[in-house]
Amino acid sequence: MTVAEYNESVDQYSDNLYRFIIKNIKDEDKAKDIVQDTYLKFWEKKDNVDLTKIKSYLFTTAYHTLIDVVRKEKKQGSFNDVKEESYSTNSEYSDLQEILHEAVEQLPEDQKAVILLRDYEGYAYHEIAEITGMTESQVKVYIFRGRKFLKNYLGSIEALI
User: Is 133 exposed, middle or buried (CB count within 10 Å of its CB: 0-12, 13-18, 19+)?
Assistant: First the structure.
């Protein structure tokens, strides 16, 4: 892989990677660090990556880096960071997108990741399986369970409006 091809991959995929990461962790600085770490790992292995699978490699690496960061933070969590209002919905909201983001935040990490890859980024099931290292059937189950949770969490749209 040449430097020009590497730079082209940065131009093509860095925004999508950042958007995927920021939807998972809601911290701009950490998201930028994860994207940067992903491209650093990609640079170190640039000669071993197939040119037709760059996007998949980048998202897989970003996903695993994200999981590492989340696990590290769970070990270092603080009780003062817990916000009581994040565990319930408030019927006064009129911004449906904000309510949906709040609901997505309640999902377990694996379900959240596959929901975001499928519904926000538009990946196929087999691509998500490749990125996350799960089987395709596991991906389908997590997406089903995540959507079911979101449906129950949000209730009916008419109740929200």
Answer: exposed
Q: How far apart are CA 88 and CA 115, in angstroms?
A: 21
Select 1-76's CATH number: 1.10.443.10, 1.20.1440.230, 3.70.10.10, 1.10.1740.10: 1.10.1740.10
Domain 91-161 belongs in CATH node 1.20.1260.10: no
Backbone angles phi, psi at 83, to 5 degrees: -110, 120
Instruction: Please say if the pLDDT value at position 88 is more than 70.
Output: no
Q: What count of Cα atoms within 13 Å lies in the side-chain half-sphere of residue 52?
A: 0
65 CA to centre of own chain: 11
pTM of the model: 0.52
Provide CB contacts within 8 A for 102, sequence distance 6+.
Answer: 86, 89
